[in-house]
Amino acid sequence: MFKKKRPLQSKSEIVLRNIVVTFLVVYMGIFLIVPIIMAFLGSFHLWNPLNGTYEFLGLDNYIRMFQYPTFWTAMVNTLIFCAVVVLFRVLLGLGLAYAITSKMTKHKTFFRTVFYMPTVTPLVAVAFVWKIMYNPQFGLIDQVFGLDINWLYSSSLALPAVMVMTIWKDFGYAVILFMSGLLSVPSDYYEASHIDGANAWQTFRSITLPLLKPTMIFVVITSIISYLQAYVPVMVMTKGGPGTSTYLSSYLVYDQAFVKYNFGYASAIAFFILILTAVLTVISFKVTGEKA
Amino acid sequence: MWKKLLAAGMAAAMLMSVTGCGNDQEISHSGVTDTNPNKGLEVIGDNVTYDPNHLINDGEPVTLDWWLWDAADVFGKFAEAYEEIHPNVTINIINNPWDGFWTKLPLALQKGEKGPTLFNVHNSYQHLLLTYMAPYDIATEDLEADFFTAKSHEIDGKIYYTDYGIMTGAIYYNTDMWEAAGLTDADIPKTWDEFREVAKKLTIREDGKLVQAGFNYNGDYQVFMLGIPYQYGTTTFEKDMKTVNFTTEGMLKTAQMLQDFYDVDQVGDKDFGSDAAQSFGQGQSAMVYKWGNYKGTLETNYPDINYGTFEVPAVDGDPFAYDRYNGESTPGINKNASPEQLEVAQDFIRFYMANKDLQKELCMYYNLFPANNALRDDADIMGNPAVAAVAEHIENYIWPGAMPSTLEDNLKIAGQDIMYNHKDIEETLQNAQDIVNVDLANIDFTSSENLYYKYDK
Fold first, then answer.
1. Residue limits of CATH 3.40.190.10 in chain B
2. Which H or E run includes B93?
C-alpha cells in the first residue's frame, strides 16, 4: 500500500527531521508523559498541590473510589451516555451522509454546511442555549410542544436531555467523515452490484458497509474516547444534578480535583477511566475484527 | 555549519517556548523617596490605632502587589490613602476573576517573594492559604476589642485575618405583592407558623397553575439548611468540631418544613424556575431567603423591583441562634515576601484595621453588618435594609467557622435528591453526612461553633 521507504536525501532533511522529532518528544514528554506519571504517583497520595499536602496513602484512594456510591452512579451514567450518544452519532451520521451523497440529493454543499454547523459552534455556547431551551417556564421546547416538564431537574430526563444536546452538537462530524468514506468507494462496485440485480439494501449491506468499516471504526473509537471524557455539557447544564443523576466520570474527576482539591483521589478516578477507555477501545477493535 | 547553528537555535527557541523560560523583569518602583517622618496627621483608630507620622522602609521606594477578585475601586481607596501618607510605597492592585482565583493564588504564593504581598481572603479557602500567611503584627486583644468577630479567627493566639463585615440571611419580600395581598407591616411574621400563613396569602394560582409563588427557595436549599437548624438548638458539628451531623432534630425539622412549604402549603413549586433569586427579580415570587449581597443583585439586575426585608422567622421567641453568618475578610499577608514588603504590609494592615471610614465604605458596598464595633450604630449603614433586618439580634447569629465547600456542595446534592428525586429526607441527609465526614477527614478544619456564647448553654 505504501511506497518503499526512501532514504533521507539531504542534510537539510535530516536536520528538519531531528528538529521536528525533538520538538515532539519534548512536547509530549512535558505535557503528556510527566503529568501522567505525576498523576499516577499522586493517586497513591493525599495530594493538594495548592497547599503543599502530599502524604502517602497507599491504595486508600482506590479503595475509597470503589466504596463511593457517586463513583458508581457516575460510571453507569458515563457508560449509558457513551453508548447512546455514540450509537446515535453513528446512525444519524451514516444515514445523513448516505442521503447527502445520493445522486437524487440536490444542494449537497448546503446540507453539508448545515449539518456541520453545530460541530464548529463552541460547546459551552451550545450547552447554554440548550439549557435555556429546556427551561420549564420560558424554554422553547416546552412552549413549542405545549409541555410542562422541568427537563434538567428530572432524575429520569436530565441525562437524556444532555444526551440529545450532545448528539445534536456532534452528529455533523460523523456526517462529514462518512461522506468522505462513501465518496471514496469505487463506483465500479455499485455498477457491478446493479448488473447483478442487487437491491438498494443489499448494495448497502454488502458493499457500502464493509467498505466503510475503517471509517466506522475511526468514528466509534474516537467517539468513545471523547465521550468518556465528556464533562462540559454536564457542568454547564446540570452541575451533575438533580442530586447526582447526571454525574459523569470526568465531571467527578473535575469536581474532586478543582472544586474539592482532592487531587490524589481525582487522579485515582482518572486512572480508572484511562484503563476503562483502553479496555473499551480494545473491545471495539475486537468486535469490528481489526487488530488493536 | 550554519545549518547546525540554525537548528540548535530553533530547537532552543522551541524549548524556551514550551517551558516558558525567560529572565524575570526587575521590579520598577514608581514611589519617590520619603524623607518626612512627621506628616502632621492624626492618629486614627480606637484600640487598633495607626500613627501615620513615621517613615516606612526608611523612606526608600518599595512596591508590593495586592491580589483581589472584586471591587478594585473600593479596595483601591485603601491603597491610595496609604500611598498618599507614604509616597515611597506603591501598591499595585491586581484584580483577578473569581473563577480560578483560588487556584492561581496558592500557586503564586508558592513562589515566595514573587507572589503577591497582600491578597484578599475568602474564609472558605483558609485551608489553602493559611500555610502561606503571616500573622498580623497587631495585639490580638486590640483586634478583639475593636472587631466583635475577631476572637473566632484566633489561631494559636494569633490572627491571620479577620472580618471587616458580616453577612447573613434575611427574607426579601416584594412590597407591591405584599400590598396587593392586603398585608401591612403588622403582618411581618416572627415565627415560621406566621410565615407560612403569609406565604399562602401571597401565592396566586390561575386554573390550578402557579403564577406567583408565595415563597421560593429553589436553588437555596443548602444555604437554608446550614443556618436555620440552629434555631432548634442543634449544631452542624459534633462536639469534636471536626465531624458533621446532618440528622439532628434541627436538620430534619428544617428539611421537613422546606418540603411542607411546597407539598402541604403549596406556596411554591420545585419546577417554578430553578433560581429563586431570578424568580424574585422577575416578579414571579413574593418572598425569598437571601443573604445580604442579594441587595446588590437586585439593584444591578432588577432595579424595578420594590422590596423590603425582614429577619428570618424563628421557631420560638428566643432561638439558640437565628441563623449562621459568614464574614468578609481582611487581607492576608504573604509570609515569604521580602523583609521590606513585609514591613510595609504589616503597616498597611494596621492602617486598614484602624480606618473606620474606608471600612464603612466596604460595608456599604457589600451590604454587610460592620464587624468594627465603632460602626455598629452608623446611621448610613443601618439605613441599608439588608443590614437593618438582622441588626437587632446580630449577637444571636453563629459562625461555624471557615467551612470547606464540601458541606454546601453535598447539602445541595441532598436537597436536589429530596426535592426532585423524591428520596427520603433522613436517609439522604445521612448519606450526605457520610460523604462530608470522609472529605473533612482529609482537611485540617475545626469548626468555631463552640465559640458561640450560647454553645455551652
1. 33-162+330-354, 167-327+384-451
2. strand B89-95
